[in-house]
Amino acid sequence: MQLAGAVALLVVSGLAVAAFPRSVLAFLTFQSALLAIYLARMPTWVRAGLLGAALLVMMPLIGLYNGYYLEVATQVGIFVALALGLNIVVGLAGLLDLGYVAFFAVGAYSWAIFGSPQANAVFGGGFPLASPWFYVFLLVGLGAAATTGVVLGLPVLRLRGDYLAIVTLGFGEVIRVLANNLDKPINLTNGPRGITPISRPPAPFGLPYPEYFYFLVLAIVVVVVLVNRRLEDSHIGRAWEAIREDELAAQAMGVPLVRSKLLAFACGASFAGVMGVVFSAKQVFINPESFTFLESIGVLAMVILGGMGSIPGAILGATVVTVLNLQVLKGFSLWLNELKNAGVTVLGFSLADLPTQLEPAKYERMIFGIILVLMMIFRPQGILPVHRRRRRLAARSAAPGTAETMATPP
């Protein structure tokens, strides 16, 4: 029954997007169908087949009707990889990192410098590199970001909690400030003017670049999910969870704290580095303002919203936050402006009298904050938490009531 309902929702939503290509509601219904397929009870191979058909066939076809939807799906994939990387550091190892976007910037600038004429200012000539070098720089960005993660991890091994968060926040700002000021005495990053044009890789089979980057991001996300799953079930993942629960107890049980923490920072950073390379090639232009502190907060909100330590939760959290930012709030702002321009009256009040500053898209951070506060009050474990965390929080919330009941005389 659940299988039939999920398949029906997927088909109906796909047809709705084809019939109403500009309808945000139709596209949101299609995304809800993907969640319904994941949650429905069905054999694993059937679920994988349906998700594969939706992502590999239906989504590109939807992009033919409205290219913006394919752009949204690509952006969702980029942030899913970032959320999964931060999920290792925050969700599994329990290390609060507020400067995660720095690793994203390292990967982006690694290809932006050598994949554009910018490197001529440093090395004298021979740049940009040929487009196929992009695939090599996926590994270069991975290694550079992982190395940066180790460099960050070494000085903060003894820090935890708020102190660790403050240091990582500062590290993220240091990377942004360096990118902003390394235009002299040697012009490495071109400062606040940014770097452009950045070479794009050759698209196989003559694919248009929107479809190519969608499939490339999707392939990277699949690899990231598989690596996360393997790490979660390995002895390294168990060591990270032990450190998260009780660092002293983990050390007493023989968990190597230094190596485990450095591995967490390196693994989480490597995913961001790879996506940074893809991001710079896709955008063709980057500057330091693409890697602000608010981006780190946004990725952290995705992890918390979905459920810390949960791979499906990180994917769902990244999807919800990205779609809310790119589609729902902006679409609501455009709809509200149309009503204002038409002079629509609601309950005797003319919407044309609303202040021009009232733009829901401008208040996205406030809306994210409200959502997180409500999540912490009503569902602190996240939307799709891991089973262990769900049981622990349920036991913690039941404990005061149990103690009070035991203390009450008969």
Secondary-structure topology with pairs:
Elements: H1 2-19, H2 24-39, H3 44-65, H4 67-92, H5 101-114, H6 120-123, H7 133-153, H8 162-181, H9 209-232, H10 235-245, H11 247-252, H12 257-283, H13 293-306, H14 311-342, E1 345-346, E2 349-350, H15 364-378, H16 387-407
Antiparallel strand pairs: 1-2
Describe the 3D structure.
The chain has 410 residues and is an all-alpha fold. The chain folds into two domains: 1-65; 70-342 and 358-384, Orthogonal Bundle (ABC transporter involved in vitamin B12 uptake, BtuC). The protein is 71% helix and 1% strand. The chain is built from 16 helices and two strands. It has helices at residues 2-19, 24-39, 44-65, 67-92, 101-114, 120-123, 133-153, 162-181, 209-232, 235-245, 247-252, 257-283, 293-306, 311-342, 364-378, 387-407, and strands at 345-346, 349-350. It has a two-stranded antiparallel sheet. It is globular, with a radius of gyration of 23 Å. 38% of the residues are buried. Mean pLDDT is 85; it is low at 402-410.
